[in-house]
Amino acid sequence: MTTSAQVPAGTGPAAARLEEARRAYADLLGQGLSLDLTRGKPSARQLDLSADLLRLPGDRHTAADGTDCRNYGAPNGLPELREMFSGFLQVPVEQLIAVGNSSLELMHDCLVHALLGTVPGAPRRWADEDRVAFLCPVPGYDRHFSLCERFGIEMIPVPMTAEGPDMAEVTRLVAADPAIKGIWCVPKYSNPDGTTYSDAVVRALATMPTAAPDFRIFWDNAYAVHHLTDEETEVGDILGACTAAGHPDRAFVFGSTSKITFAGAGVAFFGSSPANVAWLRGHSAKRSIGPDKVNQLRHVLFLRDADGVRAHMRRHRALLRPKFDAVLRVLAEELGDTGLATWSTPKGGYFIVLNVPDGCAAEVVRRAGDAGIALTPAGATHPYGKDPRDSVIRVSPSYPDLAEVEQIVRGVATCVRLVGYEKQVAAEG
Ligand code: PMP
C-alpha cells in the first residue's frame, strides 16, 4: 500500500494540491483526535427524547383489551401497538406481529426457519437445496451480508440505482436461477445510500417471475418514519403489490423502534401474508412463550398513536438534520471542486455515502484511522466485505455531537484529498 512518504511530490498539476493535502494531513495527525463514526447509532441526546420510557409503564400493567402484560399470553404482541405501526409498515394489523426487541433477530429467525423448516410454497427446506443464493443490492447493510455468510447463503451483488436495485439485472437473475431464494431490500432511506425505491421498482419486485417458487423479499423497512425533511417520503406497498400480483407470500416485512425509542430496547415487527405469519409464529412458539409485553405497553403509553410517533420523529429530526447538513456543507467546502468525490444527499435515514476514486476507499479509511478517526471499514457495504471498486465509504453522523461531526468530516475530506492526489501524482508519473 502506498504511503505519502513513498510518493514523490512530482511536478504535474496534482503536485501542488498534494503538497497542500500533506500539510493538512500532518496538521490532522497533530490534533491527536479520537473520534468514532463507525456505526449509525442514535446519540445520547436522541435517547434522552425517550427518557419517559424509563418511568413507564409505572404501575400500569393492563393492555387495552385487559391483557395482564406481566403474564404470558398475547403471542402476537399488543394489538394497540400493532395498530400504531400498521400504517407506517403498510401491513394490515391482523398480519403484523410485534415480537422481541430486534428486527435483525427476526430476519435471522426467518432464515433459520426457512433453512430448517419449509417456507410456504417451498418444495423442500433450504438446507436441503444444493445451493441457496440471495441478491444483495450494493451498497447495502453489512449485517444482512453477515447473516448470509453465517448460513452459507451465496451473495450475488446487484447495483443500486437512484430508484432502487437495478431491476433489469434482478429480473434477469431471478427468472433464470432457482437457487436465488431471496433479495435484501431496505426500501426507504436505504442503508447506506439513502435511496427510496420508486413505485416502478416495487411493482417489478412484486410481479417479476422467479424460478424459485419460494422466493422471498426481505423488506427491511428500518427507516420507515425517519424523515430528515418536511417531505414524509412514502414507498410503495410491497405486501399489497405482491398480493395483487398473485404472489401473496413473497414479501417478509420487518421494522422496529430501535431508532425511534431505545436502540436494542425497543420493539420489533414482522408483517407478511397470513400463511407466512402463521409459519413464523408456529416456529417461534417453540423458542418463546411470548414477547415482552411490559415493554410494548411502555411504548404504547409513551408514543400513544401514529401522530405521537410522527411528533417524536420530528424531535429526532431536529437533532439529526443539523448533523447531516454539516456533513453536506463540509464535504462541499472541502471536496466540492476537487473532482475527487461524490456523495448522497438523503432525505431520511441515518447514512450518507461518500464515493471516492476507485482504489482509494480502504486507504482513506486507513489514513483516517491513523489520524484517530474511526470509520466503518471500507468494503462493509458489500458482500464478503469486498467492494470490487474500493470506492464506497459509509458516513454515519448521528452519534457524535455537531462540532465533532464537522471535525470528523473535515478530517475525512483531508484524507480523501491526500489519497486522491497521491494517486493522481503517481499516475502522472
Ligand atoms: N436494518 C437496518 C437497515 C438497519 O440499519 C438496522 C440498524 N442499524 C437494523 C436493521 C437493526 O435493527 P434492529 O435494532 O431492529 O435489530
Automatic annotation (TrEMBL):
Signal peptide: none
Organism encoding this protein: Streptomyces silvensis
Keywords: Aminotransferase, Transferase
Molecular function GO labels: L-aspartate:2-oxoglutarate aminotransferase activity
Record's keyword annotation contains Transferase: yes
Transmembrane segments: none
Keyword presence, Protein biosynthesis: no
Record Pfam families: Asp_aminotransf (PF12897)
Name listed for the protein in its UniProt record: Aminotransferase
Entry-linked SUPFAM superfamilies: PLP-dependent transferases (SSF53383)
